[in-house]
Amino acid sequence: MGLFFHIFWTSVVPILALVAVGFILDKKFNLDLRSLSKLNFFILLPAYVFRSLYTANLTLESVGISVCAFVILFSNSYMALGVSKLLGYDRKKTQIVRNATMFNNGGNIGIAIATFVFSNEPYIVNGQTPYLDAAIVGVIATFIIQTIFCNTLGFYQAGTGLLTRHDALKLVFHMPVLYAAPAALLARLIPYDLTTLVLWSPLHIFANAFVGMAMITLGVQMSRTPYNFLKKDVLVTTSLRLIGGPILAAFVMLLYIVLYEPVNPISAQAVIITYSVPSAVNTALIAFEMNNNPELATQIVMSTTLLSAVTMPLAILFAYYMFPV
Q1: Could you give the maximum distance between any two Cα atoms of the chain, in Å?
Q2: pLDDT tens across 130-170, in order?
Q3: Domains plus CATH for the chain?
Q4: pTM exceeding 0.85
Q5: In a 10 Å sphere around its CB, with 0-12 CB exposed, 13-18 middle and 19+ buried, how is residue 45 labelled?
Q6: Which of 78, 99, 43, 84 is nearest to 301 (CA)?
């Protein structure tokens, strides 16, 4: 019960508080949602992605975990696609369900939850936290895959329900974040610390602003969205993200261990935990930017965020018993 309240208080409540700020501000001042969306996607998000990938602590183990994260990502995609076909969703709605199922909030909630879990019992040894570094490796490797594909494939999928494939690709190539990810990975090869440059300071400030501004933008979007969390489409996608996600993650990790090579059980636990977190806020912002079922996407993000306070503790226990130390 303590874990439940800790997750709700430290991860869910701060998100709801930021969303509430956007909600209240829009009700009072009728903010320009389109301008907020452009600010997020053309300035703040590219800065956030570049800084995150450039400063990430990558190891050789990260490669194997990244391969698993890649397979899990597309396993989620096919799961969402299959369920959407069974339920007779049109192409536009199917792409929104795929995005919400594939892409999660691992960069914020995932890192916070992993840090808490692996800094407390039963992972403390003689007052130390020897498992924390391995856990963060798993989260960061997963976060990198999520970040790259959410901000490229996510746009493409949201657009294919409305545009031709050519036009959807053209739109993706106009998004700065597409270039931020490879630029950061290439910059890591340069024998010079970019954090010492004068321009790093404004980039750092923009990156810090992204999460707060994204949540406020989501709040503005929420203020214009009818509430219906019991809607069938919302419940189905929420179940895929919060229940199907960690189960698929565990299955893929087991396959990797059996067919290829052993993985640090702590890293495996961290991957499962990361795939149990809510849908990424970006999926709702992308849906608005592409004008593809933004109300449904917003409701899914809020529904998964609220219900994750119940499902994440269960996923943590599931991961603990699946890959014991």
Answers
A1: 59
A2: 888 788 778 878 888 888 888 888 988 988 767 777 777 77
A3: 2-322 (1.20.1530.20)
A4: no
A5: buried
A6: 99
